[in-house]
Design a protein that fits this description.
Blueprint: H1 2-16, E1 22-24, H2 42-47, E2 56-60, E3 68-71, H3 73-78, E4 86-88, E5 92-96, E6 101-107, E7 118-123, H4 130-135, H5 157-177
Parallel strand pairs: 1-2
Antiparallel strand pairs: 2-5, 3-4, 3-6, 6-7
Helix pairs in contact: 1-5
Amino acid sequence: MASSLILSIALLLAITSSEAKEFLVGGADNAWQIPPNTTDSLNQWAEKNRFQVGDSLVWKYDPAKDSVLEVTREAYLSCDRSRPLAEHKEGASTVELRRSGAYYFISGAAGACEEGQRLIVVVMSDRHSLRARLASPAMAPSEYEGPAVAPTSGAGKRGGAIAAAAAAMVALSGSVFML
């Protein structure tokens, strides 16, 4: 019974964590601005989050004073606002992360990027995403070349159930840590 409860909780966590998420950039409505100091950058916020394909970034800012430019790595490093890949100037901008890899964003306001108003977001590859693994069909037994399961020593029905639950938890925790 305890093993059923543990497996149910683990499955529920896996399902709820597999949904696309919206991330408010910087974690606050007014975060898209020149940071007050270098230890408070938006990149530090981004490093604390795990972005997956299908997630979205949401910016909130005053459109009369600023915008969000999606740029190349080179334009990010040089704060070049002249040729953005995309320009968002609505005041409440949403960008869907449709591929794995790095995304680069800078402020559209003159001088703001040079003062630190910029962001790099790294999206995990599908093979590291629990969402992608849950959506993928299971491998046929002939395709799987993992370790064989050793026979139990006849510890009884209850001991076998506990061992099976423990093995499932180990397998699931391995999946979670691979994210």
